[in-house]
Structures are given as structure tokens and as C-alpha cells.
Amino acid sequence: MRGSREERLHSRRPQSNTTATPKTATANNLKYSDQRSCLGFGVSQKFSAGPCNQNWAQLRADVKNCQFIDCPRNQKKLPLLFDRKEDTISKIRFIVLSQDPGASLRPNNPKMMEDYLIRECSNIECPTKGGLPARIREIFNKRFDPSADEVYWTHSLKCVPFKDEDINKEWKACARFCKDYFRREIQLIPSECLALIPVGRYALTLCRHLLEDWPLSNVGIVKYMQAHVSPDSEKPFNFNEKRVLIFPFIHPSHRSQNLKRYEGLADIEKRFAETIRTRCAA
Questions:
Q1: Distance between CA atoms of 6 and 17, rounded to whole angstroms?
Q2: To the nearest 5 percent, what fractions of the chain are helix, strand and coil?
Q3: Spatial distance between the Cα atoms of 163 and 191, rounded to a whole number of angstroms
Q4: Closest residue by Cα to residue 243 from 12, 92, 20
Q5: pLDDT tens-place string over residues 166-206
Q6: How many whole angstroms separate alpha carbon 242 and alpha carbon 263?
Q7: Residues 173 and 70 sit within 8 Å (Cβ to Cβ)
Q8: Which residues, 6 or more positions from 130, have their beta carbon under 8 angstroms from its beta carbon?
Q9: What are the backbone angles phi and psi of residue 6, rounded to the nearest 5°?
Q10: Residue 43, SS3?
């Protein structure tokens, strides 16, 4: 039986501990310095991820010793998760999420990979053109250290692939397992206000899966970006007592063709970048 109309209506009501902020707020009056009101938008969805009592060192150890026996990258597994000292985790306000580390990082060991990417993000005047570090720096309009600064960078699938190619088959096998690592990363960050910057359709799909139970099999990005063309559409999700906003960007490897194919995407990316830079300066 479907139950009475009153029962169905009651089941759709939000829980009493979910508080929505005024819908009239815009990106212009957001200040990250005030973490209790920094997002300024109504909460659009709640996802309870449960408690997390572990620390960053334990998370890194679990990623390194991943027990997913059906992983197609098990042969010569090479995971990557930036080290964060405990006193730097509270600085994180922005999480950049890409699909996976590039295959060009092989055959380096994890420490060498981390050091190389940190240099690309923070020290080199002109990082490798067309690469993710260069694109992330362009979005924020500044250098950053993913192991220490307010901008943290991680990957949807944690292991370095053997080839840089479409990850659809590996996504189907691994995403349902790797999603828990990303969930724990967010849980370990104490900030009450976070901005997720997924770069590419797989990264966006993982963000939506954790925040609104979006199917991992429904991979896409263009329609989502086209539906979020105004500040009023940027309503935060409530995740584990954090307010989280999503600002997606096209992956560099597909960016040129997508910007030519879909009118207006460049303007959407530009507005997202301007909003992010404003919050960095707050």
C-alpha cells in the first residue's frame, strides 16, 4: 500500500536539523571568513555520510594498501593521494577533483609523483601546457600547493592508469569502491563550507553521487553546466554537516571540442572561475 496522502507528504518533509538559508542571497555577498553563513544559498539536498574517526595518515595508508581485488589496475598498482599534515587540513576550502592521475606519471614512485605535481602546481613559472596543473592554476588565477594550501587536489580513481584513454570500463569497475575514499577525504576536512571543483564528467558524476545519490553510471557534465547558468542555481548541498557547492569545468583533453560544440560553455566556465577567485580573495 502506498499510504495516505498525509503520510506521503510527511515522508517528503526535510529533517528538522536541515536549515535553509535565504534564496535571495547571491555570490556577491558571500564571505568564506564567516563559515556559518559563507554559502548564502538554500540547501538543496541532504546526504548523511556518517561519522569518520580516522585521520589523514590512515586514509593514505588505506589507499596505498587498497583491498579492492577486482580492480583492473591491480597489476603494478600505483595510487596517489597527496599527503596533508594535520595542521594544514583545516585550511582546505576548495577541493579540485579530476578523474585520475595521468599515465605519464609512471614509472615514478608515489613520493616522486607527489613532488612533481606539487612543483607543477606551485613552483614552476610555466607548467606543462594542456595539463591539469596548468588548467587548475588558470581557474584560480594563482599558484597553489595541494599538500598544504586552501586548494586541495585529489582524483576520483586513485591509481595511475597504464594509458591515458577513456576510463569508462575502469570507471564501472572502480568508482563504486573509490567513492568511499573521496567520501572520507571530505569527512576529514573540518571546514563547514567547501567548494568542489570537478574537472571533467567523471569527477562531476562522483560529486553528484555523494551529494545527491546520482547514479555513477549516468556520466555527464554539459547538461549540468547548462542548467547552472545563474547564481540563483548555485544552491549548496548539505553533506555531513558541511555546506558544499559544485563548480564543474570541462576536462582539458575535451575542452576545445566541447566549447566549439556547445555555445555558452565558455561563459559558464568564466563565471564559475570569477566566483571561485572572489572567494579565494575573501
A1: 21
A2: 40, 10, 50
A3: 36
A4: 20
A5: 789 999 999 999 999 999 999 999 999 999 999 999 999 99
A6: 34
A7: yes
A8: 252
A9: -65, -40
A10: coil
Sequence letter at residue 115:
D
Residue 20 lies in a domain: no
- Domain CATH for 194: 3.40.470.10
Residues 6+ apart with CB under 8 A from 15: 46
Reported as a pLDDT band with limits 50, 70 and 90, residue 13 is very low
Average confidence (pLDDT) over 129-154: 94
Show Cβ contacts of residue 173 under 8 Å, excluding neighbours closer than 6 positions.
Answer: 70, 71, 72
12 domain-assigned? no
Residue 10 belongs to a domain: no
Q: Which three cell numbers stand for residue 48?
A: 548523511
Asked whether the beta carbons of 160 and 106 are under 8 A apart, the reply is: yes
DSSP character string of 54-100:
--HHHHHHHHHT---TT-TT-TT--B------HHHHTT--EEEEESS
Q: Report the distance separating Cα 202 and Cα 155, nearest Å.
A: 10
Inside any domain, residue 18:
no
Under a CB-based contact definition with an 8 Å cutoff, are residues 251 and 199 in contact? yes
Task: Check residues 269 and 166 and name the one with the higher pLDDT.
Answer: 269
Q: Phi and psi at residue 167, in whole multiples of 5°?
A: -100, 20
DSSP state of 22: P
Give the best-scoring range by mean pLDDT among 38-47, 126-135, 177-186, 253-262: 177-186
Indicate the pTM of the whole model.
0.80
As given in the structure block, the three cell numbers for residue 29 are: 555577498
Supply the range of the domain harboring residue 56.
Answer: 52-281
Identity of the amino acid at 151: V
Rounded CA separation 64/113 (Å): 14
Tally of structural domains, the chain: 1
Regarding beta strands 94-98 and 193-198, do their DSSP bridges make them parallel or antiparallel, or are they unpaired? Answer: parallel
